[in-house]
């Protein structure tokens, strides 16, 4: 039997203090699939994303990548496993270290795993081109660019390791319509070329309908296949 | 107002905003104080043990700007050397406090959990003791010397630095950009060196600077109590203490001059550090339109 090609949260349970946020939630994102995730504010969408991104240890349940169970979280995840899942956060301001130029921001994950520098520069240029960042923007720091430009840089950073799974936590909520469309198009394009699995958390029903292959309500049931 | 100043060049200095004028004044005071104390041994050497018993308690005049004390020593001259000692002790002790506080706070903030709780309870326990008393205890164990004073001040002043570094690290650790770095594959050390410390260092430098006036006052207090430098060496605390005896005879300058020096110089440091703090704080930054 071949191992399943999906990122899976299996019966995940998370509680903050005594407040149970996720109670036995199961969600899978298969390679090549776009899954929409919705639910009212505070229902645990972001927590689920953090669990899937191996950033938050669930109190119960398992996370596995293509059938490989992940035991640790945060620093304890082996780099080879960790870089197969990338996250695009809601607020690019919060997700970007204010001290780094956009170039360094995009290159940081490669440098963190000690990739050779010439290759790093080449990859940054390639990704900057993909997300539509001009070279003069790349030298600037986060405070000197717009939210849209910064989110493009964060997207480039998320794609830098060529992840198999991309988790977008309301990643387009703070962007204007044209940037939103462009970011969505870049993600869709990447998904096609790499056959990546994408999880989209959004309140934007129109975007969800256009984009997602299936939509999951965090109540648990699959509500409506969009296509 | 701007038009008026533009038309009349004499009014131009008035365009300095009050906050900036204060910082400029403080900067000038500090430059003069530091340059003066650094150059004093070359420009205006002092024989620490010399006395002139025929010139005791002379009021301030052009010959003796700060007057003379009850042993005929020039007060202004000794105040320069006293300030030299004070600034040296202040700076070195602040540095010692920063290193200790930075390490303890850094360990607590990075590791968190049980280590953090134990270290912070130790900090709280030491903080519960009056630090001047603790400082006196430390100098009392050592021989009176510059090193003893520095140890006394440095070893009692690292608590606030440790708290600042710890809380800064704890709040930084939960920021999304740290999550993003981890998600990108950065290990613990890289996150610390590349994403956490660079944000803490400016705060740490500021804490050190704000510590200097505090350390200077502490040194002065120790010297005033006779626990600082040996009495014949000029230090501002020694001078204020010696001058106390002359107050009743009307020689106010022997205490007042060193007292004024310490107030003006420490105030200058504090004003500059406060301005620096404002620049670091994004909320204030927005108000200042920097």
Please, could you describe this protein's structure?
- The complex is a heterodimer of chains A (227) and B (290).
- By secondary structure, chain A is α/β, with parallel strands linked by helices.
- Chain A has one domain (6-224): P-loop containing nucleotide triphosphate hydrolases (Rossmann fold, 3-Layer(aba) Sandwich), CATH 3.40.50.300.
- Chain A is 37% helix and 26% strand.
- Chain A has helices spanning 45-52, 79-82, 92-95, 102-112, 117-131, 135-138, 147-159, 177-194, 205-211; strands at 6-16, 19-30, 34-38, 60-65, 68-70, 85-88, 165-169, 197-201, 214-217, 222-224.
- Chain A has a 6-stranded mixed beta sheet with strand order 6-7-8-3-9-10, with helices on both faces. A 4-stranded antiparallel beta sheet of chain A has the order 2-1-4-5, with helices on one face.
- In chain A, a hairpin with a 2-residue loop joins strand 1 (6-16) and strand 2.
- In chain A, helix 7 packs parallel to helix 8 (177-194).
- The two termini of chain A are 30 Å apart.
- Chain B is mainly α.
- Chain B has one domain: Orthogonal Bundle (MetI-like fold), CATH 1.10.3720.10.
- Chain B has helices at 2-7, 18-43, 75-111, 113-128, 131-141, 146-156, 158-173, 176-183, 188-224, 236-247, 253-280, 282-288.
- In chain B, helix 2 crosses helix 3 (75-111), helix 3 (75-111) runs antiparallel to helix 4 and helix 10 crosses helix 11.
- Chain B is elongated.
- The two termini of chain B are 21 Å apart.
- Residues 286-290 of chain B have low confidence and may be disordered.
- The chains are: A alpha/beta (227), B mainly alpha (290).
- Chain A binds chain B through residues 50, 53-55, 74-75, 79, 82-83, 85-87, 89, 91, 94-99, 108-109, 112-113, 154, 157, 160-161, and chain B through 175-177, 179-188, 190-191, 194-195, 198-199.
